[in-house]
Amino acid sequence: MDNKQLVVSLSPHVQSPQTTQKLMLNVVLALMPAFAVSLFYFGIGPLLVTLLSVGSCVLIEYLIQRFVLRTKSTVGDLSAVVTGLILAFNVPSNLPWYIVVLGALVAIGMTKMSFGGLGNNIFNPAIVARVFLLISFPVQMTSWPQPIESRLQYTDALTGATPLAVLKEGLSKGQTISQMDLPSNMDMFMGLMGGSLGEISALALLIGMVWLLITRTITWHIPVSIIGTVAAFTGILWLVAPETNANPIFHLLTGGLLLGAIFMATDYVTSPMHPAGMWVYGIGIGLLTVIIRVWGSYPEGMSFAILIMNSVVPLINKYMKPKRFGERRAAQ
Amino acid sequence: MSKLRTFRKGGVHPPEQKLSADRPIERLQLPAKVYIPLQQHIGAPPTAVVAKGDRVKVGQLLAQSGGFVSANIHSSVSGVVESLEPIADGTGYKRPTITIAVEGDEWLESIDRSTELNTNLDVAPDEIVKRIAEAGIVGLGGATFPMHVKLTIPTGKKANVLIVNAVECEPYLTSDHRVMLEHGPEIMVGLQLLMKSIGVERTVIGIENNKPDAIAHLSKLAQDYKGIEVQPLRVKYPQGGEKMLIKAITGREVPSGGLPIEVGAVVVNVGSVLAAYEAVQKRKPLFERVVTVTGKQLEKPSNFRVRIGTPISTLIEAAGGMPSDTGKVISGGPMMGKALISTDVAVAKGTSGVVLMPSSEATKGEPQACIRCARCVNACPLGLEPYLFARLSQRGRFADMENERVMDCMECGSCFYACPAKVSLLDYIKLGKNEVGAMIRSRNAKK
Amino acid sequence: MNPIILYSVLILAGLGIVLAIVLFVVANKFRVDEDPRIDEVEAVLPGANCGGCGYPGCRGFADAFVKSDNPSAMFCPVGGNKAMEAAAAIMGMSIEAKEPQVAVVRCAGSPAKRPRTAVYNSAPSCKLAASLFAGDTACPFGCLGLGDCSRVCKFGAIAIDPTTLLPVVNEELCTACGACVSACPKNVIELRKKGAKGRRVFVSCLNRDKGGVARKACGVACIGCGKCAKICPFEAITVENNVAYIDFERCKACRKCVGECPTGAIHEVNFPPRKPAATEATTVAEAQS
What we know:
The complex is a heterotrimer.
Chain A: E1 6-8, H1 20-42, H2 44-68, H3 79-89, H4 97-112, H5 125-136, H6 138-141, E2 144-145, E3 159-160, H7 163-172, H8 185-190, H9 202-214, H10 221-240, H11 248-253, H12 257-264, H13 275-295, H14 302-319
Antiparallel strand pairs in A: 2-3
Chain B: E1 25-27, E2 33-37, E3 47-48, E4 55-56, E5 61-64, E6 73-74, E7 79-83, E8 86-88, E9 94-102, H1 125-134, H2 147-151, E10 161-165, H3 175-182, H4 184-198, E11 203-208, H5 212-222, E12 228-233, H6 242-250, E13 265-269, H7 270-282, E14 288-295, E15 302-307, H8 312-318, E16 326-331, E17 338-340, E18 353-358, H9 359-362, H10 375-379, H11 386-394, H12 398-403, H13 414-418, H14 425-446
Parallel strand pairs in B: 1-15, 10-11, 10-13, 11-12, 14-18
Antiparallel strand pairs in B: 2-9, 3-5, 4-7, 5-6, 7-9, 8-9, 14-15, 16-17, 16-18
Chain C: H1 3-29, H2 36-44, H3 57-67, H4 80-90, E1 101-105, E2 118-120, H5 126-132, H6 148-152, E3 158-160, E4 167-169, H7 179-183, E5 189-193, E6 200-203, H8 211-217, H9 227-231, E7 237-240, E8 243-246, H10 256-260, E9 266-269, H11 276-288
Antiparallel strand pairs in C: 1-5, 3-4, 6-9, 7-8
């Protein structure tokens, strides 16, 4: 007998090559088309804001783990990079640097690390940060640079409103949809409109979704249920009163709906664990988004809808169980 | 070929690594000594009926079954009983073992050693079960449940289909595959005997379609036998689990905590069918089995016909010797097999394979934080929530684990395989199952 | 007066009266008469709710204590004699004082003494490891070093030493509640009499293998030679299954056995340093091992 020490462990003895880091990298890659579009339309602003946001998220996570929690650093799993990207994608590309850093602090420090780090937070860090900034800096957070015109400017870019804001303001003035100056469907699809850094191009976001689906990073349930609910709900409203309600296509292409449905609502940590729960969650987000957009005081509702549904996720996980194998059905 | 079937929910697909699929079964040379453990099956331990110094023949009874759910143990060699002292098994704990020094190869005269196919089916059903019980046959897939217990249908229940588990869904293992290719006719006769013993008209052999040669071979043979059909299955782990296989083939779900017979099915492993044929037609007890010895760095991955009690080190030598970079030795497949602390461990009835893992694959990935990605929930074929079990187990909330039906878990390991954060899901589930099992036992004891 | 205010006041007052009556009736109907001594006994208990007494928390102990026919058989290991005297006083009785105990780790197989033969690579839990295999050394009886004892200790009194990979008990903090004793799957930890000034002698090994096997597995194993049993003037030592055990009720801590042990498996703690003559014996034993 040789004296070699064999490893003894419980089964199984093989593991899939999938890792947290690879999954996060997939999300980062999937966000790249939208980032490229943003660079094309807004120029240097998105570059500065994104680098700043990602850099400060990673740095804040590192510093907290190194000096406050004194645990092993986990920045290598790239989750802070994803948070930084999503946060950047949710703010105007002319946002001053200190607001971006403050957002990163809220996202990583307040929403993620104070709950115990990756996997333990109840709310999506990037969205909490975005909502925090929206309430704290309403002016800076709602003055979006106009595409193309000010590619070389950062904070001094020409600003304008988003289509949803135009719609809301127009309706409050008593205008009908046809009287308003809204971008064409094609422009909105390609991203030629005012809006947050990464939300403008539906095409780029959909390319990202395809990537996430083919790499099996996410399942289709959440995006499809959100998009379907929003389309159905706004469709009904539009059919009832087409002059005061925008059509479903308009709703789907604006206000970061696709960004939220594909990248933010599907955040693993804050979404339900199995398909039935995902449907409830997705439908909830869809309904709340439309309710806030149509009847609320904010023109955009995606962030609030996701946060509200985040808070329901523990309940969904507790009360909506997957069907157990061999469970006798109630009917029998 | 009929449409591929599979079970619906969950499952994973680890790399198949069937390195030894093309290697015909070789008969291994007899070792100098064999170490035959008394407990090689699930159920009551048998009692030894030989003493130190006794001279035994191949096939002679060494230990008498200790109850209904128990099995006889027979000598796999001829020679002298050297000791009945407990010997450390693959876990390092000592278990009662009969050590025999091999002398020659003298078989009991009652065993028919001819290789001729005996197609005579003129045996009464209870005689079939009796012969199988006498031969000490247990499930050879690894679960080692005594076969005669399965074949004894409880009163009030009725079986209507016999399902043959030829899935071999564990990566690396090929012993069942080779048995099917090399012993097809015997399996067909064995199946007819088993159908007769439990009184069913229909048999389905479930084979995953990564073994097209076995599917073709058995399909062709089955044409000559009434009621036997081959069902190709999509490759998906853990299809070899009894409940999963029944679901894949019949669409029926065995109720939680129930046995296959509750949905009218009896499931037997294909290797056990061959053993049953030999027991009934040749009066040969179970004292040898086919074992796959494999590993990426092994010189000669092989399938051996091995006498029970042969040390695993002998098998590894015959397959080209232990590679210097071996980090882990697994008895069974890599998904559900047990890691051994040394290779001085004997082959038992349930040893379906020996897998050598290089050091680079021996240790598990460093566990990270759970990101709640739900891959474990999606991988669980039983609709359980592994992430939840791990959390509850770590917090000692075992009563909650029982309510979440942790005892349904069959420890297939799909959850841990799928986990990107490498969380020790199954470790904590097993810990919880041990605790919940103890809770249930003490509760039943109070009643 | 404004009728709105009047009506509001009247309605609220009326509601208050009605609800007060309901509460009074319900409280009377469902009142549970409890022995007030239960509260008093609970008050003198330490309130650690450790379960060391075998009851679900201090309240459970107090309840059982008051209702028990033979309360003197019960003991709160954390509160010790002081708490028990106080509790007995509430019941109007007195109970015999018990000698204080402490958790003792009966394994000294550090990696230096007990070479590792396998590498454990699963979740850090002694219970889980014990269900999987005999241990990562050739000794199937010794400490697994994965810290189940330290995790169950409510008082932070036991921790795994990073170099010896063995648990170390902090005698000041240990309350002898017994949580670690029941948590250890190998039964390595025992509650023993603390001894005068904390001085005690014990066999720090549980290896039931034959001498040669045990010695090969671990340099400080008890080999069951029986020398200690022969020299003990108080018949406190028994050797069964190849391992010696010192009965702490009989042991007078004379330490004769310590020098006699050829492998150094018998430990003495909290004694002042030995006189030169005696030290020689121990160094010889150490040199041999």
